[in-house]
Design goal:
Layout (H helix, E strand, L loop, with lengths): L1 H6 L1 E3 L1 H23 L2 H7 L20 H18 L3 H18 L6 H14 L9 H5 L7 E3 H21 L3 H4 L2 H8 L14 H23 L1 H22 L4 H7 L7 H8 L17 H17 L11 H4 L14 E11 L5 E4 L7 H9 L1 H17 L4 E12 L5 E2 L29
Antiparallel strand pairs: 1-2, 3-4, 3-5, 5-6
Helix pairs in contact: 2-4, 4-5, 5-6, 8-11, 11-12, 12-13, 17-18
């Protein structure tokens, strides 16, 4: 039963169409990052770069190197679209995109993480077997079929993303619309819809629709009677997000995933009328079956476990941020902070106040004021900078305060702790993060 479910052949039109959409979107993301100034702001202008902890060795290329880096990634996206040297192109893009994701987190986005996962999955898909230059130049690889596991790998990945996104919204500031109100406040000057987005009824509708959409969209797309109406809701939801939140390619990538929920005949009849439809009921067991089952089980175990890690770390993740990233906790909170760094020369006892904007961009300084891993990393950076001058220092975060969703500021970092002497753990609570106090 499992063998037939995973390895029976089905028409590959959805995969071929997705490859074309995916290539266009990743090319647009990379070229757009240059044109909009994202590369300059996040990878060229900063004097100091916040890589993911453990990947500090990954640093932006000097000079204008990152422009060429993104041009290369965009070009690889074009090659994916054309299906030319597909395997090389998608592997190279996955490696390069993962690199740029890990080398900066000032502009962290769950969507960037999703792009890593989908690119990685696409490495193993036979996405160049039809309507591609590879199939044109190498007819022996051409086929109109693909194994059923291709479709269900994408479906399972989406189900995980949307389910965890639903669970993350189950907290008080979502249900009393506090966060939605804050989120929409910055959209007040939008033409036509700006005023509507400030209305309490709109906040309630957005909060309810977002949870219901995340919870039900995958099951509704899988069930034939609700598929078309679910698709219409998906178009509305993702276009709304694109217009209101301007979050790059993600809404369109989400819509591109929809092709996997429609049968190959439907996709073929709309997009590939000259392509033959695969109709043979064939089950051919591949030689890679054992490796596939082990690798796929391990991959999805990690995907299920990683977003759960914050439940095993003391304190509220909304406050500590420990376990927040790579957990599909998307658009959940507004976070602001206040912070003063003081350093103490261990030999002379001299105390000096550090102005973060002397070292960081304004955007980086805002992250440092509010996020614990940024605070720790900057403390380590100061320690190294002063060590170059022959000074051994302590680094203290003085008067550190954070506000979540507009609530009163609370003390965040223990000012007595020498952060320069602390270590970082991805899976443990850091005691120098002060506990969140219940409102009086």
């Amino acid at each position: 039963m499992l063998n037939r479910f995973l390895f029976k052949k089905i028409d590959n039109s959805p995969l071929i169409l997705f490859r074309i959409f995916f290539g266009i979107l990743i090319a647009s993301e990379c070229y757009g990052a240059i044109l909009t100034g994202w590369v300059k702001t996040n990878l060229i202008d900063p004097k100091f770069n916040f890589s993911f902890i453990g990947f500090q060795w990954l640093q932006p290329l000097p000079g204008n190197g990152m422009y060429f880096y993104f041009i290369l990634m965009g070009t690889l996206g074009v090659l994916v679209t054309l299906g030319y040297k597909y395997r090389f192109s998608i592997i190279a893009f996955t490696v390069l995109w993962t690199g740029v994701y890990l080398m900066q987190k000032t502009s962290y986005n769950n969507h960037y993480y999703l792009l890593i996962l989908i690119s990685f999955i696409m490495v193993f898909f036979p996405a160049n077997r039809a309507v591609s230059l590879d199939a044109k130049y190498h007819p022996s690889i051409k086929t109109n079929a693909m194994p059923n596991w291709v479709k269900w790998t994408i479906v399972a990945q989406l189900f995980i993303v949307y389910t965890y996104a639903t669970l993350a919204k189950l907290y008080i500031d979502w249900f009393d619309f506090t966060f939605i109100k804050i989120l929409m406040k910055s959209k007040a000057d939008y033409y036509i819809i700006g005023e509507l987005l400030q209305q309490p009824w709109a906040h309630k509708a957005i909060a309810a629709f977002a949870i219901l959409f995340d919870l039900l969209i995958v099951p509704a797309l899988l069930w034939r009677p609700t598929r078309k109406i679910a698709f219409c809701f998906a178009i509305f939801f993702h276009l709304f997000n694109s217009i209101v939140f301007q979050i790059g390619i993600f809404p369109y990538l989400s819509l591109a995933f929809m092709v996997f929920f429609f049968d190959g005949k439907t996709i073929r009849n709309i997009f590939f009328k000259k392509k033959a439809l695969y109709t043979i009921d064939e089950l051919k067991m591949p030689s890679y079956k054992g490796i596939f089952l082990v690798a796929t089980s391990l991959y999805f175990f990690i995907q299920l476990a990683l977003p759960m890690r914050h439940y095993f770390i003391p304190e509220n993740v909304l406050w500590t941020e420990e376990g927040h990233r790579m957990s599909w906790r998307m658009m959940l909170r507004s976070r602001t902070g206040l912070l003063v760094f003081k350093i103490k020369d261990k030999e002379t006892g001299k105390i000096e106040t550090i102005k973060t904007t002397d070292y960081l961009t304004k955007k980086q300084a805002r992250r440092v004021a509010a996020l614990p891993d940024f605070i720790w990393q900057f403390a380590q950076h100061l320690k190294k900078e002063y060590a170059k001058k022959g000074q051994d220092i302590e680094v203290h975060a003085v008067n550190s305060k954070v506000s979540i969703n507009g609530k009163p500021y609370q003390h965040f970092i223990d000012p007595q702790v020498d952060l320069a002497n602390e270590s970082w753990s991805h899976f443990k609570h850091h005691e120098w993060i002060l506990p969140l106090k219940a409102p009086e």
